[in-house]
Specification:
The protein is α+β, with helices and mostly antiparallel strands and 211 residues long. The chain is built from 5 helices and 10 strands; from the N terminus they run ββββββββαβαααβα. The chain has a single domain, classed as Dihydrodipicolinate Reductase, domain 2 (2-Layer Sandwich).
């Protein structure tokens, strides 16, 4: 787990103060404004699959997404760019939609004439919900209110889910309260402490803006 607190910096070209200099904030505050963590699910189905979660304030961009990286083929029979992999991107905010990034079979133009070598090249499928369903869509809160009226609970958290979430999170909060080092500083307008990049790099991965 990596936690941080933003210092003075610039967001979209506008200078912003440090968190401790914000109105109403304790100048000695140790409250985190950034969290990145690596988690796993203790079941056979998800064994060996890491989950990287990152959230924060005053970052380089307002972006909320889920990225699913698929495992590479164990015995690749085609040439592929180093480190490339198929991935599914679920965009949530500020735009929502789906992106499917694939490595498709193509011809390596540099070597085709001499060796007829087959290679893989990146291609992308993009579904923008605003463009496809713009006139038919409703806002997020409007949808929640309609679900309440109709008695649908699909988008709501049950009480036992809340209890399990707190059971998982509470030990982390207690550990941070006893940690004298406090959150790591990071400049406003960046993607958080560099330690978050180091954490994910140890497993051979990188955050989407770094790849």
């Amino acid at each position: 787990m990596i936690r941080g607190q933003y210092t003075a910096g610039a967001v979209d070209g506008v200078a912003v103060p440090a968190y401790r200099d914000e109105p109403g904030v304790n100048p000695e505050s140790r409250t985190e404004t950034f969290v990145a963590l690596r988690a796993e699910i203790g079941s056979w189905r998800w064994a060996g699959v890491p989950f990287y979660i990152r959230t924060g304030k005053r970052l380089a961009d307002r972006d909320s997404r889920i990225v699913v990286n698929f495992r590479p083929a164990p015995h690749a029979i085609f040439h592929a760019p180093p480190g490339a992999a198929n991935r599914l991107v679920i965009n949530l905010q500020p735009k929502d939609g789906l992106e499917l990034h694939l490595l498709a079979q193509g011809q390596d133009n540099r070597n085709a004439a001499a060796r007829n070598v087959q290679s893989l090249s990146p291609v992308q499928l993009d579904l923008d919900f605003d463009k496809r369903f713009g006139a038919e869509r409703v806002g997020a809160y409007e949808r929640l209110l309609l679900d309440v009226i109709d008695g649908r609970l699909n988008l709501f958290v049950r009480s036992d889910e809340q209890e399990e979430a707190w059971r998982w999170v509470e030990p982390i909060i207690e550990h941070w309260q006893a940690d004298e080092t406090g959150p790591r500083p990071y400049a406003a307008g960046t993607w958080g402490p560099s330690a978050s990049s180091a954490m994910i790099a140890r497993d051979g991965f990188c955050w989407s803006e770094e790849c």
